[in-house]
């Protein structure tokens, strides 16, 4: 007789039975402020600016009108904000123009969202309009192309860093110019401080990139960026998308644009561009390949009822939209602001994807935060909503290490502000250093960073500690 036949019911282990709770805990009613993300700015608020007082909704929602009336350069900007911005603010702006690497270009939509009663502290103003009084000296360790995008470019305008992904820079203009742009080495016109690399719209240049992509079977994922694909004529959107999707090795393409955040009315009024990107999306579906848009909202103040109308159109057409945000001092460097941004993005069907540690870009030291600040914000934001709607906080490692989880450093010296990252699957054996902004360090350490010998000592010490800790694991 088998062992199983000797088992009787009374010998079977008893099932554990969970006792019902003596008292079921009910969550208390939420404070109405928890639902504030559902209240999107609406109405004709832009009429509060004298320059746009006579602009009706139909005109304001015309992307061509937005482009033609954007503040491009000092004279146009001052003309648009006179009468609404304080005189001392305008003087501060004029003094700041010549000290930054990016030209100024701001849409009427964004200008109308700035709090002109206090433009010095406004999170939208901080991103696009430089003030001489707020600029800080650059950290001595930064470089113009801190991510080494050009060094990792086998052909002009195509960065191949990750094994299966490449960044295709198709142009060098945008609907707006962000002060903090990591590609200030190329985007926009030359400024008093930077002579730009040229990446103009050029099908012949693109052809070299296509040839390289096709020749590398490991490439599966292409990010089409620039510049900004919002500025790419519809015929080129369609041609580039179709050309990439029909390559056997390509499985995914992403169109990168800040345009959805700064000029959402293009989706509502540029039918040819919208139809072109939709056709690319449908071709991808037919070929079982992913097509999506990656956009760039940085503050909840940028999300309005117009944003939702534009996102609703893309959602109805089946387009996935993800958001890549940059952590910036005075813009979104608090858990409360980032929580609101996360919730508002979810409200308009935009998936929070990345929160970047601010790249080490010239002329914007006032916007950078510490790695520690980023870590603290992530801890507080995680859990406020579903995981798939919660962004991953990353450092794009200076020197071309690629994106690393912000908390995944090998070593972090909060006194000197040096954090050390490795990227085993990207550039094995190398160490990549990020540097906290000088203003967050002691006066003694700030002075040390001005001495080349001490710079080297602090960097060498950080790398030695990182090696020791890796070796101990």
From TrEMBL:
Its cofactor is pyridoxal 5'-phosphate. The keyword Signal does not apply. It comes from the Bacteria. One of its GO terms (molecular function) is 4 iron, 4 sulfur cluster binding. Residues 160-385 form the Radical SAM core domain. Keywords: 4Fe-4S, Iron, Iron-sulfur, Metal-binding, Pyridoxal phosphate, S-adenosyl-L-methionine. The modification N6-(pyridoxal phosphate)lysine is found at residue 403. This is KamA family radical SAM protein. The lineage of its organism: Bacteria, Deltaproteobacteria, Bradymonadales, Bradymonadaceae, Persicimonas.
